[in-house]
Amino acid sequence: MMKGNNNKRNIISKNTHNFLLKICYARLDSLRNVFINNISFVVVVIMISFFCFASVSKASTEIYFQNDTKEITQGDSFGVFLKASSDKSINVVDGTVLYDKDKLQIKEIKKDNSILSLWTKEPIFDNKIGELSFTGGMPDGFAGKDGEILSITFLAKKTGTTTIGFQDIFSVYANDGLGTQINPWLKPLSVNINKNIKLLLIRYILLLLVLLFAIIKLFIKFKKRKNKNEK
């Protein structure tokens, strides 16, 4: 009877041991899977980050402004060139330029020296909202530096710092026969408009002349009254 009880105990002990081992193995498998999944996730994140930053660092097309005027004062007209640089051949540029309607006003747009020769949308501007938009292309494509797209003449209306920039949707297309869209670097231009000292001096001089004329007029009037009273 004692032998039978011992056998039962041994069987129960064995079963318990096996059950605990199964739990341990299952737990280890779970931890291993979590570890592998985390490692895989980290690897994927690193790879995505690498390719993203690699593609950004190798961006080959830039759209930017060039301004040769060193000092701009209120009331001045100054020229800004919209340009493109690309080491890949491009054949279409489609976008919108934004500017501060309170500080700037477009006076003239020239496209005589533009790399774009076909205009599906002629350059048009609206000084009431501060926008200039266009769509143009070139049959032979362009690859190189400082390709002029447009020449823009601005009038500096108000003093202060302002920016000539781009609308978010600004498209450039590769000259590959497939219409592949390129996301270019867009570089805005910061413009500082100074007070016009000459204009201020002229205003002050005119104001002084007006005051002087008023004083002289009052003096003459006072003199006449005095002479009249003496008589």
In short:
With 231 residues, the chain is an alpha+beta fold.
Keywords:
alpha+beta; 39% helix; 2 helices; Immunoglobulin-like; 41% strand; 231 residues; 2 domains; elongated; disordered N terminus; eleven-stranded mixed β-sheet
Description:
39% of the residues lie in helices and 41% in strands. The protein has 231 residues and is an alpha+beta fold. The protein has 2 domains: 1-58; 61-194, Sandwich (Immunoglobulin-like). β5 and β6 form a beta hairpin. The termini are far apart.
Secondary-structure topology with pairs:
Blueprint: H1 2-57, E1 61-66, E2 72-73, E3 77-98, E4 104-110, E5 118-126, E6 131-156, E7 160-166, E8 171-174, E9 181-182, E10 185-187, E11 189-194, H2 197-230
Parallel strand pairs: 1-10, 2-11
Antiparallel strand pairs: 1-3, 3-6, 3-7, 3-8, 4-6, 5-6, 7-11, 8-9
What's the mean pLDDT score? 80
Low-confidence stretches: 1-6, 8-13, 40-59
Report the span from N to C terminus: 159 Å
Q: Compute the gyration radius: what is it? A: 38 Å
The global form is: elongated
Which architecture of the largest domain would the CATH scheme give at its second level? Answer: Sandwich
Q: What is the β-strand count?
A: 11
Could you state the order of secondary-structure elements as H and E?
HEEEEEEEEEEEH
Which bin fits the share of residues in helices?
25-40%
Largest sheet: 11 strands, mixed
Beta fraction: 35-45%
Can you tell me the CATH topology of the largest domain? Immunoglobulin-like
Q: Which structural category fits the helices and strands?
A: alpha+beta
**Quaternary structure:** single chain
The level-1 CATH class of the largest domain: Mainly Beta
Number of domains: 2
Count of discrete alpha- or pi-helical segments spanning 4 or more residues:
2
